[in-house]
Design brief:
Elements: E1 26-31, E2 34-36, E3 41-48, E4 53-55, E5 59-62, E6 65-79, E7 82-95, E8 99-102, E9 107-110, E10 113-116, E11 121-125, E12 153-158, E13 162-164, E14 168-177, E15 183-187, E16 198-203, E17 206-209, E18 213-216, E19 219-235, E20 239-243, E21 247-252, E22 261-266, E23 268-273, E24 283-295, E25 300-302, E26 306-317, E27 332-345, E28 351-364, E29 369-371, E30 376-382, E31 387-393, E32 398-401, H1 423-458, H2 464-473, H3 478-488, H4 493-501, H5 505-521
Parallel strand pairs: 2-11, 6-17, 12-22, 13-23, 24-30, 25-32
Antiparallel strand pairs: 1-3, 3-7, 4-9, 5-6, 6-7, 8-11, 9-10, 12-14, 14-19, 15-21, 16-19, 18-19, 20-23, 21-22, 24-26, 26-28, 27-28, 29-32, 30-31
Helix pairs in contact: 1-4, 2-3, 3-5
Length: 522
């Protein structure tokens, strides 16, 4: 069974003691403890933190056991609803014969300290199990392990069961089972997910870890978190709701004759509180902890020109409740707005949602003199202080200067000028210029596409978090690394090339900048 961690799930906080995982910054997780010859087990070494982490040896062979390093990555974890970030080193373990073996010592280095894997025994069984007459039984059945008569259960959980309207939370699915050697869990593609009165989004590179065995309905059951889809949810209406209704398909991926089962999920019951009364007039629904900034406000401007300035609201929380306020001054108009939300490390050291919202305004000046714009007010509900807070920006004084005088250009008197070229020559030159430009553009595009494919081929099989980690270690920014990783995905070369052709000029330049950075690094 895949082991997803050693920390206790908070719902069963009093029933299961905490293991000694707290005593070390590095964890060694080996699974499964029994597998067939020709297959492999996995050793996952996890460091809790952002310091330097590496494997001292990438290939080990000892007493018939081979350990191979297959890559590294990073992961955001929600353990007992406490969010943290960790680094992961992955190894494959296999043998050349059946029997009981001891895992060779695997040594890693984290923050200039060395850590060695604990003694671990595992069993390798025969490659396959056949009946005595294979001709009459071409599809043998494994009957060593009797399946449990208990049906699996999939339940939806949230990190909070009581919260405010507009407050972001995290939701995920957990499989509870007995009788599977290696559980298989996929969401039924024919079924949608029900989140009534909630805005939902899928969080990237976020995982949830709970205790591998918990008491469920007074019975000890094993657990598996469905980490392919971790959701960020924001309630838009107060009340009591049941969320997470859908269907899953489960089974045993190591048992040949195992039948897949369709499992209805157990929904999570949550209570969404309405915000306290006496809301400020400037409150539009923002919940969290934010700050207010003013940029690009001009000190002076000429009459009948437009003064542009930008208001930035950023901080811990979602942007769903942040909206521009209607201005009492008709001369101030909203030009544009941008909103961005990420799941990242916060100033408190925990991980959560961080939003940046920018409003661009324009002020149309009509008369000369000094202008004092009314203060900009922004209100939000602070979860830390459990009260409404209002922030304000005092605009500096702006001076309106006299209207600019535009000088009229006088045409020179006609003189003995040479005759202009004929219209046919001008048309010919224009057509020649257009074709030359198109030819150059096609040549440049073909060259860029060729350079891009060469870079993709140089990555080999690195994709997703492994590719992101590789790029960041080679000096590429996190934003550009995630852009390229998302562009490649798990697609084949023709699909990747087609996607590159559809990129905007800005994104294409970012991708080519990554190639130049990698070439410089080499």
């Amino acid at each position: 069974m895949k082991n997803f961690g050693k920390l206790c799930y908070s719902l069963f906080f009093c029933l299961i003691p905490f293991p000694t995982i707290f005593a070390s910054e590095v964890d060694f997780q080996f699974f499964p403890n029994e597998f067939s010859l020709g297959e492999h087990a996995k050793l996952e070494v996890r460091a809790h933190g952002d310091k330097m982490f590496r494997a001292l040896k990438t290939n080990i062979k000892q007493n018939g056991v081979r350990v191979r390093f297959i890559g590294s990555g990073t992961e955001t974890q929600i353990i007992n609803f406490k969010v943290s970030k960790s680094q992961i080193l992955n190894f494959y373990v296999d043998t050349e014969s059946e029997g009981t073996f001891k895992l060779p010592e695997v040594t890693v280095e984290y923050d200039n300290k060395t850590y060695t894997s604990p003694p671990t025994q595992f069993k390798v069984s025969k490659r396959s199990k056949h009946s005595q007459n294979q001709f009459f039984n071409p599809f043998p059945m494994e009957i060593d392990d009797e399946p449990s008569d208990e049906s699996p259960e999939v339940s939806f959980h949230t990190n909070k069961s009581v919260f405010y309207k507009g407050e972001p939370i995290v939701g995920y699915y957990v499989l509870y089972y007995n009788g599977y050697r290696q559980p298989f869990l996929e969401r039924d593609p024919n079924q949608s997910i029900s989140f009534p009165y909630f805005l939902s989004e899928t969080l990237r590179q976020v995982s949830v870890q709970i205790e591998p065995e918990v008491f469920r309905n007074n019975r000890l059951k094993k657990t598996l978190v469905y980490d392919k889809e971790i959701y960020g949810l924001t309630a838009i209406k107060p009340g009591r709701f049941q969320i997470g209704k859908t269907k899953f398909i489960s089974g045993d991926s190591l048992r040949f004759n195992s039948l897949q089962e369709t499992v209805d999920t157990t929904q999570a019951t949550v209570t969404v509180l309405d915000l306290p009364p006496n809301k400020p007039n400037e409150f539009t629904g923002a919940i969290g902890n934010f700050k207010l900034n003013l940029t690009n406000f001009p000190k002076s401007i000429h009459q009948e020109e437009t003064a542009y300035f930008e208001i930035t609201i950023e901080g811990e929380g979602g942007y769903e409740g942040i909206s521009p306020l209607p201005q009492s001054n008709p001369k101030i108009q909203l030009i544009s707005q941008t909103k961005n939300k990420t799941f990242q490390k916060l100033y408190s050291g925990d991980y959560g949602f961080y939003s940046v919202v920018k409003f661009l305004y324009g002020y149309q000046t009509q008369s000369q003199g000094k202008i004092q714009v009314s203060p900009y007010l922004f209100s939000f509900f602070s979860l830390k202080e459990n009260r409404y807070k209002t922030l304000s920006i005092q605009f500096p004084e702006m001076v309106v200067l006299p209207k600019k005088k535009r000088k009229l250009q006088t045409l020179p008197k006609e003189s003995n000028l040479p005759n202009p070229p004929s219209i046919f020559l001008l048309v010919f030159l224009a057509v020649l210029g257009i074709f030359s430009y198109l030819g150059y553009k096609s040549y440049k595009h073909t060259k860029q596409s060729k350079e891009f494919l060469e870079m993709v081929q140089s990555f080999g099989k690195k994709r997703n978090v492994f590719l992101t980690d590789y790029l960041e270690k080679n000096g590429v920014s996190t934003e550009n690394s995630q852009l390229l990783s998302k562009l490649l995905g798990d697609h084949d070369i023709p699909t990747i090339e087609n996607t590159f052709h559809k990129l905007s000029g800005l994104d294409r330049n970012k991708v080519l900048l990554i190639k130049n950075q990698l070439n410089t690094k080499e």
